[in-house]
Amino acid sequence: MNIVVLDGAVLNPGDISWAPLEAIGTLCVYPETQPEAIVERCLHADVVLVNKVRLDGHLVDALSHVRFIGLLATGYDNVDTKAFAQKNIPVTNVVAYGVPDVAEHAMTLLLELCHNTTLHSESVKRGKWAGTWCYWEKSPRCLSGSTMGIIGFGRIGRRVGELAHAFGMRVLTEKRKNADVPAYSPFAFVSRDELFASSDVLSLHCPLTEETRGLINAETIQRMKDGVLIINTARGPLIDEEACAAALQSGKIGGLGTDVLAVEPPKPDNPLLCAPNTLITPHMAWATTQARQRIIDRTRDNIVHWFAGNPTCVVNGVHP
To answer: Does the structural domain 99-280 have CATH classification 3.40.50.720?
Structure first.
């Protein structure tokens, strides 16, 4: 089969292997593709793989010869899944490829907020460590004995809970339907109000929905502890950035560590860019070499299962 990747650079800039896909077909990888080049590049494709390239409904007729579309990601809002379903073209995605990776990134942001290791390392390099056996620019903060509140207790949220427990933290989360109680303690399912009121650290791992958009806002921030730390490795619009920046300025929020923003890349006037005690990473929590290789491996599996007549991870309901 002919396999075309329309935007391979974001997933694989050269540090992982396309070999699993090369083993099952003739592979052509384009680093990126502009909208006007999509149809031409897919002329002879049986399988089209995309990460962020948009495959809108108006392309369906031009791509009707394509037999399979695969997302090199979990989200699929950039593909008109219903339109391709009408042409009987399955669309698949990849799930749970970065559970430990994103959880570790969340804890990395948290530990940096608590211990400011980069700040102190840079101050030592500037020659400040002289005349005394120790010093600190900001007082370190210990996690043991404090409370971690988790909003979104799926695979990643559960892993964050395990890591928080390993650091000696009490873990709270909202009750999910049919959710099992973890083996460690102290742990409790609580209401959202209690979660806001009791957490020393609040870590976000929920999907973006109309209910969760702006979840962290001026009103909910006021219900939190003074000096609360907030971690967001989920979706940027979960946080009202104006309200969060104001709370960081006042000290109501003690620190924010986020891997996501409401608009990415950020606009120069994003209020979080100049807010104190704020760490921002460029949507990279998912991007370890191991996680990105898993995406390729699992995409290969999706194609193989589809070709064998037993498709997996289909998001638009097309089955043999």
So the answer is: yes
